[in-house]
Amino acid sequence: MNIPYRNSNDNIMIVIGIILLVLIISLAVVVMVRAEEIDLKAIAQIESNNNPQAVSYTGAKYGRGLYQISEICLKDYNQQNNAKLAPTSLFDPKTNEEVAKWYLTQRIPFIFANWGIPVTTINVLWAYNAGVGRVRQGIMLKETKFYLAKYAKLGGSHSNGRGDKAGNKGLSIRRRRSVKI
């Protein structure tokens, strides 16, 4: 009886195959998470009252612009996208929106996929407001509950109370007219 001998090259190929499989599954999850909607106008209203020059000095580590992008988020964006955006560039509405879209539809879902956290609207908004670590720990602050209530009041989508619409499996961005609160 001949038993095939495995050499170290075979083991390396097996490990590479497993890594590729994990990457493909992760990418599939990230692509899949684009079906559900995040309402950017509602987020801009809540975060900055639609003021592109808004600056927060509490909690968000100096959130800037329409979507109150923090220094931590900007650093992550620059590293992940090989970019060199300066904090002052966040006062440009288009740049601020680009970073917010990336964070909401790519970065947070990618982190959730790695941690095995369901990617729902409520979880993504929870992470956007309080940080991904709070979602992982299951800690929802009172401020975050108010944030989610404001989002729902402005017409944002999280109709079943858990943040995910029936039948939808992920995230995409929805733009609409501004709403005053």
User: How would you sum up the global shape?
Assistant: elongated
The sequence of SSEs as H and E is: HEHHHHHHE
Number of helices: 7
What is the tally of beta strands? 2
Biggest sheet statistics: 2 strands, parallel
Provide the fold topology.
Blueprint: H1 8-32, E1 37-39, H2 40-48, H3 71-81, H4 93-115, H5 121-130, H6 132-137, H7 142-153, E2 172-174
Parallel strand pairs: 1-2
Keywords, separated by commas or semicolons:
disordered C terminus, 181 residues, elongated, two-stranded parallel sheet, mainly alpha
Overview of the structural elements:
This protein has 181 residues and is mainly α. It has a domain at 8-48 and 93-174. Helix content is 53%, strand content 3%. It has 7 helices and 2 strands; from the N terminus they run H-E-H-H-H-H-H-H-E. It has helices at 8-32, 40-48, 71-81, 93-115, 121-130, 132-137, 142-153; strands spanning 37-39, 172-174. Strands 1-2 form a two-stranded parallel sheet. The N and C termini lie far apart (78 Å). Residues 31-35, 159-170 and 175-181 have low confidence and may be disordered.
Entry summary:
The chain has seven helices and two strands. It has helices at 8-32, 40-48, 71-81, 93-115, 121-130, 132-137, 142-153, and strands at residues 37-39, 172-174.
